[in-house]
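#onboarding

Welcome to the new folks! Below is a worked example of what a typical request in this channel looks like: someone posts a single protein sequence, and someone else replies with the predicted structure as tokens. Don't worry about understanding the tokens yet, we'll cover that in week two.

Example request:
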Amino acid sequence: MEEIRRGELMTEVVEHTLQDVDGDFRVVVLSDTEQPNPACAAVFGNPQDGCLVRIQSRCLYGEIFGSTNCDCLYQLEKSLEEIKRNDGVLIYLDQEGRGAGLLTKARGYQLCQDTGIDTFAAYAAMNCKADSRSYEDAVALLKQLKLKEVTLLTNNPGKLAGLDIGEIKVRHRSLVIPKPGDHTLDYLVAKRDNQEHMLSVAARLRWRVIRFAGSRWFSRRRAALRKAAAGPAQPDGTRERQEQAA
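Example response:
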């Protein structure tokens, strides 16, 4: 066991190796933490400052059940592919349902299906925070690995802010989803609207076609454009007489 300083507390970590089809990699698990399942890191190769890092929050539905209602499985698989190739770190946090837990997540899905609202509105209806995750343990693991600067694989600005607070210098790289399905796209748009998530280029293009026309912003914008195209306001009947004369 080793010890790292997190705030004013000394935290133990347990380190060992595992093997996958590509060879050995290190595992570092935090001990002495309030989380029932502590944060852990899979370390591939010899990461240096500026290396690729992915912080993955647990998602049973996507990672295990293969649900396409979210993009969690894609982000995990894509991140692992790049991290293994470039000597990086995958940090895994047991923060299901954006930190609210599996039961709250399940109730939120049920409410979404009953009412047609998105998961963020469902959480609000249940008086839950939209996102209660903490990235303190991720910062602790990065410091244990002596990393002061990382390239974070994420579309979530909250993760960037979480590491910045921990005095980790963060560069950003988006995770591009090539062809999101309809359910995944719904979720991406909800994350963009509620948490300012960055949509990938491919997702954004399709979103414009499928979702943008129905947004409140677009409806207001479209009405304004129609009004501008109609020209200055005229007395009742004036425009109609002009069109008939034309």
